[in-house]
Amino acid sequence: MNAHDGFVPHHALVSAPSAAPARWMLVLHGIFGSGANWRTFIRRLAEAQSAGGAPDAAARPWGFILVDLRAHGMSQSPPAPHTIAAAAEDLLRLGDRLGLDIRGVMGHSFGGKVALAYLERRPTGIERGFILDADPSARPAGESGSESPGVLEMLRAIPQPIPSREAFLEAVHAAGFSRGIADWLAMNVRREGDGFRIRLDLDILDALLTDYFARDLWHVLEDPPAPAGPGVEPRRIHVVLGGRSASISPASRGRFEALAARAPWLSVHVLPRAGHWLHVDDPEGLFDVIRAAL
Q1: In this predicted structure, what is the pLDDT of residue 4?
Q2: Which CATH number does the domain housing residue 281 bear?
Q3: Which residues, by range, are in coiled-coil regions (predicted)?
Q4: Fewer Cβ atoms within 10 Å of its own Cβ: the N or the C terminal residue of the chain?
Q5: Residue 174 lies inside a defined structural domain of this protein
């Protein structure tokens, strides 16, 4: 076994206090993020199941696994290669390590493409998939959208050590990014010795972004596996898009809609008020879509 075979990403389990989950769902954040970005939303989703809802949900409640994808959050120093495929393989090892019945995956942005790569590697056993404002297409790096490597270049330009967290926020804002983006990125800033440093390996993130833009994973949605046998629930994929998001091209939006019109396994939901950050821009709309689909 080499080093890559043993790498398992950091994770946290979330379920309702009184629940004993019968099935589990991986939750995958976007680039530069961490599992903690989704903790509040996912905790509410978990607790809602114990408060009632669909009979099947009450009988077979979901638990959720908040993952720090490779080179994010507390999943630092992963071995190469740094690709979408490697991130998906990390999730397979995590499932083996936990020994839980993982029946779903939810991914936002960069994490949405990792979710597609994971679905490709799990032809059986996955009942629900949620792809949240993620474009399966290959496209030129630097194209408009919230995964833009402009963030990466900005982080590279900040001298370290950083005097304070406030100085980091000011530098991000001065580079033209919103206070919301600055606060989100500041979750990666930690006190270290003589000041504050960015707890990210920017070279690894550069490699991950390069592979992200190079991958085309439409085939995972357009040609899903058949149910494994009689009585096995078919896979259902729910795509949720922000109506104001710049991360999904018009061509991809059209492709999603055309596929949903002919594919019973795929549903497309648009949150008109939301941009790319669905769980921030319209948490109620996203909550309603996901809860109804569990």
Answers
A1: 42
A2: 3.40.50.1820
A3: none
A4: N
A5: no
